[in-house]
Amino acid sequence: MGRVTHGGGGGRVLPAATLAARDEAAALVAAARAEAEAIRTQAAAARDEAVREGHAQGRAQAAAEIAALLVEARAQAERLREASAPTVIALAVKMAEQIVGRAVTLAPEVIADIAGAALAACRPRGDWVRVRVHPDDAAAVTARRDALAARAPRGAALEIVADEAVGRAGCVIETAVGRVDARLETQLAALERALTEQTNA
Questions:
Q1: What is the reported pTM?
Q2: For 127-150, how does the pLDDT look when each residue is reduced to its tens digit (9 = 90+)?
């Protein structure tokens, strides 16, 4: 049996097989559209998941790269510190030398304080103490002789000797039982050793 369709000015009869084919085609198109929509939905979900995974992997990779860069930066900083340590130490020693030299030049009595500190450090014993200083420093030390004598053993004879072998801004203390080298170059060498040991520790 057929179905009457209307179009234009009159109706026409379509065979049932044509109608069935058309209905089946419409159903197939609807099914294809539904399947295509499902595929699009799945593809979008897969794409979103891939983007999320990509971001997560990207973040993980970026974090790993940053960690590697930090490790390398720390290693480089340590290499630079180790390489520059001798220069820094030499600069510190040179600065200390200039500071002490300048202090003695501006305030000559500072050399008497240096000699007094050396006397106190060696705790001299015996009946005589000799303080050797550079000739340019001898007058300043002699001017504070009484303060230095107070640091010597009671009753010990204190002798101040001008000695070219002793550099400026330092002294050598001699007693009956020993000698203390408080020359500036000796003290600076000790400072350099201490800084080197501390740097290498």
A1: 0.55
A2: 899 999 999 999 999 999 998 888
